[in-house]
């Protein structure tokens, strides 16, 4: 059956009538954004307050060797002033952040825009006193607590560049990011409670800092009050300092193209790269997509379940919502604690209107059964969203019926750390949704589907190939921190003239887009992006491992699981204990999120005569798809494949 023959889900009349953008408006605005990008984005630039208005809008070149991306380049503004100060006159007493802690027994906090202002200013003054100034880097390694948002906004206020490291990363991974960004300060907390367990963040930071310059300082926020070691002169007590700090702090005047943050993300080769986002274009794009994709209206309660350690938390917990004067919910916990009803209990408790989560969470909750949903009143929900990976139609339908009661459009938002905000998504009042389809480009986004090897642009519908974007949008990343050449090579060299997304895609008979997954060596584990190369280098760093190859394989809950083929050093014997040891090793090298799901012993790996590992074959074996191995005649030693298949079948 063709995709378009499936049932589609048009917006209700009421939704279409009340939405910021209905079908006609979408077409009109999209056409305008493509025919006159300068005019379109000049108008959208008014979404934010400028200290000095911009005169130029777009200055972009995707030509290899000369790639540069500038938006609103001569404008000046401050992101924290846009997310806080400009709302104070009209909504100072409105809740900016609802904080829901890990345990439902601890009460939620309601932080008003006035509170947010005072707390952000205090944190900004503390950072300034610690010697942080414009352009300096600050690492944030925090639980999902309001202080994480204060820290981000405080950096933005004084012009420092933050780089958040997800609290699930190990001390080694943290140290690599502190050193890579040459950060002056690490902001952390004593502990991070999640799902009833406490992660010792400060202890991790202590370990990481052993591998960093001794000038790096550490600002420690109290979360649980647990005892931590304390290094005088290096460690600063946030709570003690905040009690004394001034609650006003003049925002720094920033150029539109000054960096706002660096966020490390995995690629297909080498170590994670520091994606750089800047100030003006990013904020315009985050604000606009937040308002339009979720059809956010003044007074709505909006909840994105991501962590601020990922880009979703940057754009859609903090910057987009707060720029729009929204009430944004920050959740410290996990969907299954104390039990699998938690998300829905929180929706009821805070009367959430827009709910945004990852397919992996939905699949996990779906597996627990409907009883966990039944007890919750979900009538406040208006729009549902997903992000991070393709959503399978079964999970989509469950989300639609069981959570949304068939009333709530589902925005399946496709985007990336690199893109700053949504690039493709259905809009709630405009598009007839198809379960699993990212549907339509956002305004100003020009997707093209290319034939992977010839790089020919595939015309007409339906087509399938690799997904590139033909022109810039304001939220696009500007460079890789400290390595512009790598930026050009990664994104602009395979398909000259285009931004290459790394994703495959099909466009159906109706002209709607479906993301088919990564075409490179990046895998998507529970919505978290992971470079197979990173896991491989962690494995080979173990003394007993000679060689390793890592691929993704289909996993019911996680979307993809981490499958490792490991060749041991001569003389080492495979054993269950060694499997456990290697799994723990990877957890300490990278973090629990990189924990291998399966380790298969591989006496040899399939390689070409030039020594290149043929991952295509490894992927097929991991998928149990032995009939589709393709041509193995170019292998140096074709027999290794038979061994691998045999081991796979014996699960050894
Ligand atoms: C995948 C997360 C299908 C995709 C915001 C992309 C998706 C990678 C979707 C980026 C979606 C994200 N449908 N696939 N709605 N959203 N992806 O950088 O492969 O953590 O390239 O950004 O996630 O992951 P990242």
Structure description:
By secondary structure, this protein is of the alpha/beta class. Helix content is 32%, strand content 22%. It has 20 helices and 30 strands. The strands form nine sheets. Strands 5-4-17-16-18-19-20 form a seven-stranded mixed beta sheet, sandwiched between helices. β14 (259-265) and β15 form a beta hairpin. The longest helix is centred in the N-terminal third of the chain and has 17 residues, at 113-129. It starts with 12 loop residues before the first helix and ends with a helix. 5'-O-[(S)-ethoxy(hydroxy)phosphoryl]adenosine (WTA) binds at residues 265, 310-312, 387-390, 412-417, 438, 501-503, 515, 517-518, 524, 529.
Write the layout of secondary structure elements.
Elements: H1 13-18, H2 23-35, H3 37-44, E1 58-61, E2 68-71, E3 76-77, H4 79-91, E4 95-100, E5 109-112, H5 113-129, E6 137-141, H6 146-158, E7 161-164, H7 171-181, E8 185-189, E9 192-194, E10 197-199, H8 201-209, E11 217-221, E12 235-237, H9 238-244, E13 254-255, E14 259-265, E15 273-278, H10 280-293, E16 301-304, H11 311-323, E17 327-331, H12 342-350, E18 354-357, H13 359-367, H14 371-374, E19 383-387, H15 393-403, E20 410-413, E21 447-450, E22 463-469, E23 479-480, H16 484-492, E24 499-507, E25 513-518, E26 522-525, E27 528-531, H17 532-540, E28 545-555, E29 559-568, H18 576-589, E30 598-601, H19 615-622, H20 639-649
Parallel strand pairs: 4-17, 6-7, 6-8, 8-11, 11-12, 16-17, 16-18, 18-19, 19-20, 29-30
Antiparallel strand pairs: 1-2, 3-13, 4-5, 9-10, 14-15, 15-23, 21-22, 22-24, 24-25, 26-27, 28-29
The protein binds 5'-O-[(S)-ethoxy(hydroxy)phosphoryl]adenosine.
Residues 265, 310-312, 387-390, 412-417, 438, 501-503, 515, 517-518, 524, 529 line the site of 5'-O-[(S)-ethoxy(hydroxy)phosphoryl]adenosine.
Catalytic activity: acetate + ATP + CoA = acetyl-CoA + AMP + diphosphate
Domain Acetyl-coenzyme A synthetase N-terminal: 26-83
Domain AMP-dependent synthetase/ligase: 85-472
């Amino acid at each position: 059956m063709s995709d378009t023959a499936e049932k589609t889900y048009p917006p209700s009349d009421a939704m279409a009538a009340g939405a910021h953008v209905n079908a006609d408006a979408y077409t009109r605005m999209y056409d305008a954004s493509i025919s006159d990008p300068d005019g379109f984005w000049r108008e959208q630039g008014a979404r934010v307050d400028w200290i000095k208005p911009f005169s130029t809008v777009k200055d972009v070149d995707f030509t290899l060797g000369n790639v540069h991306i500038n938006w609103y380049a001569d404008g000046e503004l401050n992101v924290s002033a846009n997310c806080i100060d400009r709302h104070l006159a009209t909504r100072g007493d409105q809740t900016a952040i609802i904080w829901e802690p890990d345990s439902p027994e601890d009460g939620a906090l309601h932080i008003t825009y006035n509170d947010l202002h005072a707390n952000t200013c205090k944190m900004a003054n503390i950072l300034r006193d610690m010697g942080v100034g414009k352009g300096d880097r600050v690492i944030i390694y925090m639980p999902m607590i309001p202080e994480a948002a204060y820290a981000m906004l405080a950096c933005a206020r004084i012009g420092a560049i933050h780089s958040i490291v997800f609290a699930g990363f190990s001390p080694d991974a943290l140290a690599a990011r502190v050193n890579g960004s040459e950060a002056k300060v690490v902001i952390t907390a004593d502990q991070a409670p999640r799902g009833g367990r406490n992660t010792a963040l400060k202890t991790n930071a202590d370990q990481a800092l052993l591998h960093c310059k001794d000038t790096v300082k550490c600002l420690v926020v109290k979360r649980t009050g647990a005892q931590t070691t304390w290094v005088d002169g290096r460690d600063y007590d946030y709570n003690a300092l905040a009690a004394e700090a001034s609650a006003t702090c003049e925002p720094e005047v920033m150029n539109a193209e000054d960096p706002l943050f660096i966020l490390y993300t995995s690629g297909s080769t080498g170590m994670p790269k520091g994606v750089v986002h800047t100030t003006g274009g990013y904020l315009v794009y985050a604000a606009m997509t937040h308002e339009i994709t979720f059809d956010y209206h003044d007074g709505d309660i909006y909840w994105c379940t991501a962590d601020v350690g990922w880009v979703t938390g940057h754009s859609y917990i903090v910057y987009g919502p707060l720029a729009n004067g929204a009430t944004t919910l920050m959740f410290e916990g996990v969907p299954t604690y104390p039990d699998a009803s938690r998300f829905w209990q929180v929706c009821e408790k805070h009367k959430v209107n827009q709910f945004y989560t990852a397919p992996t969470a939905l699949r996990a909750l779906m597996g627990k059964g409907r009883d966990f949903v039944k007890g919750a009143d979900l009538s406040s929900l208006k729009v549902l969203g997903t992000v991070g990976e393709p959503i399978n139609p079964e999970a989509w339908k469950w989300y639609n019926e069981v959570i949304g009661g068939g009333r709530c459009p589902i925005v399946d938002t496709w985007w990336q750390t690199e893109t700053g905000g949504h690039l493709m998504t259905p809009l709630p009042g405009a598009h007839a949704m198809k379960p699993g389809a990212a549907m339509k480009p956002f305004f100003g986004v020009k997707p093209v589907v290319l034939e992977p090897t010839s790089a020919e642009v595939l015309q007409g519908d339906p087509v399938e190939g690799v997904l590139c974007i033909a022109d810039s949008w304001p939220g696009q990343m500007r460079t890789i921190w400290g390595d512009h050449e790598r930026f050009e090579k990664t994104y602009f060299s395979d398909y000259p003239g285009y931004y290459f997304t790394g994703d495959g895609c099909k466009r159906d008979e109706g002209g709607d887009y479906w993301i088919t997954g990564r075409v490179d060596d990046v895998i998507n584990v529970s919505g978290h992006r992971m470079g197979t190369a990173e896991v491989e280098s962690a494995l080979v760093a173990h003394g007993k491992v000679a060689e390793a190859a890592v691929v993704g394989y289909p996993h019911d809950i996680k979307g993809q699981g981490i499958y490792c083929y490991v060749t041991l050093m001569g003389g080492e014997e495979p054993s269950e204990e060694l499997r456990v040891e290697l799994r723990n090793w990877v957890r300490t090298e990278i973090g629990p999120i990189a924990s291998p799901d399966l380790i298969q012993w591989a006496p040899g790996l399939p390689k070409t005569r030039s020594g290149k590992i043929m991952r295509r074959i490894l992927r097929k074996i991991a998928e149990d798809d032995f009939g589709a191995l393709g041509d193995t005649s170019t292998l140096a030693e074709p027999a290794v494949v038979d061994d691998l298949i045999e081991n796979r079948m014996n699960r050894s």
